[in-house]
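Onboarding guide, step 5: your first structure request.
Type a short instruction followed by the sequence, for example:

Predict the 3D structure of this protein.
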Amino acid sequence: MKFSKVFWAALLAVVVGSVISGLFWLFTLIGAIGAMGSSEAVAVMPNSILKIDLTDNITDSPVINPFANMDFTTMSSSRTLPLLKVLRSIETAATDERIKGIYINVNYSAAGAISSAALEEIRTALVKFKESGKFIVAYNDVYSQTVYYLASVADKIYIQPEGSFDWHGMASVLLFYKGALDKLGIHAEAFRPTVCKYKSAVEPYLLTKMSDANRRQMDELGDGMWNTICTTVAAARGITVEALNKIADTTPVLFPEQAVEHKLVDGVIYRDQMEDIFAEYGVTRNFMNEFEFITLGDYCTAVGATVEDFSAPKIGIIYAEGGIVDGDNTAIDGNIYGTTLANTIAKARKDESLKAVVLRVNSPGGSALASDVIWREVELLKKEKPVIVSMGAYAASGGYYISAPADAIVANNLTITGSIGVFGIMLEGGDMLRNKLGITYDTVKTNPSADFGANVLGMSLRKPTAAERATLIKSVDKVYEAFTSKVAAGRNLELQKVLDVAEGRVWSGTDAVKIGLADANGGIITAIGIAADKAGIADNFRIEEVLPELDPMTAFLQSLNTQVKYATMDNDLKALCNDYQTLKNDILRSGVQTYCPYRVWF
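The system replies with structure tokens like these:
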């Protein structure tokens, strides 16, 4: 009898607890949805000035997780703008009679979050906007290089009297871990084709500084990208590239008066004095004697519901953004899962209403196997309808692998691409476990290589034998041969030509066109135009984004789990954790890799 009482009491407690927990999550979910939908409709008033401040997060691909921008600690939501929507909104503003001009007033802290490719495409859209005859003016307290590159498109540029102007050049800083691995007693061994001398993703684990080949390619990449930026700014401001380089060499940080002297800006004024500038361009005030501003994010929302011709043939947009990993997974973790993306591409192939497809690639690559799974579906898609690749900030290594079959490849000038090469890396941690932690191990096996691949924390417990090492080398050679052959076939190039520009070497988008790895320089709008032409629908078409499906509850729980993990961390600690996660992913990558880890600081 006593047991029965305890049992039923415990069962009741479990049921009540489950009900309370369920209600809690239900109310949380309802609150989240309410918070996301609480923003008021935005109206575009007559005589408005479109303000570009970059406070909204601008991403290559749309956010498919409806809870991704939700802060569950404050029950508030932020906003993410897909790049394509931003570009189309700027295009709309050029013919919108309510928009009199554009005001570039960038949030300094937010500018660093936008990719170089997205920045280039927005700037190109603003150049096109100027053809309407409407004005673009810029004002900032502080001009970083990123902010100034965008602002240089303006008719007039102004700066705060006590502000500063930064113009110092570009750099790529690589971290090397060999010293730390040596101290820990971890031995790294890399496997890459002999000819892949530029495939330097393995170098941080083997060397303490750049190899001569890697330094040479990084020098040329940085010089090429910097020249592109300087050429663009010089043409806009009517000064020379040599003058811009002299400033970077001698006065990387300028006072406002110096910026005016060097013709980088047009005047030194306070923010309130911009009202006189707007008046000079003929903008009138509203009934409250104020100028009407509408932010880029609000304008995207206001014009996002524009009715399209639903009878028009469609061009599909598919996004490949993030590192490439094996498997089929709906996790929203910034990775491209090979089977998941392949299924999305297959879906577009079977959709007869899509007359062409633009594949937007923004990826440094990753798993060679997953890249090949995606490559196959792109190849099949190409047989059914035109496929155009639009390259974002990165389309390198595996990112290039999946791009190669396309009918045409469009790269931004600042895209990092190529890196046609492969590698494998093995970390052996037996000595560390024994000497540092006092952990030993013993093995029983049926065959000599039965324990090959046995690991702890991603580290092998022993070094490979000569036979195993030969197999690993043969596997990377085989993947490299397949990679280069598929590039040659996809690009209609002689194999030797591909081998000459491969070797794991990275190229800028500008150079990629010159050597035949890409067909044109431009952004996703250019790619869409080419797709429409090849499909014969240039006069009338509409866009449909082909996105993977995501269960709403799964999305909610994923977002909540991520925020709980980081809830108590400040921003610096979050950044450190993100860097650690990147390093961890690099070390634990299994199998042959087509991965390009480069990052250029602009």
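Each response can be followed by summary notes, for example: The longest helix spans residues 2-36.
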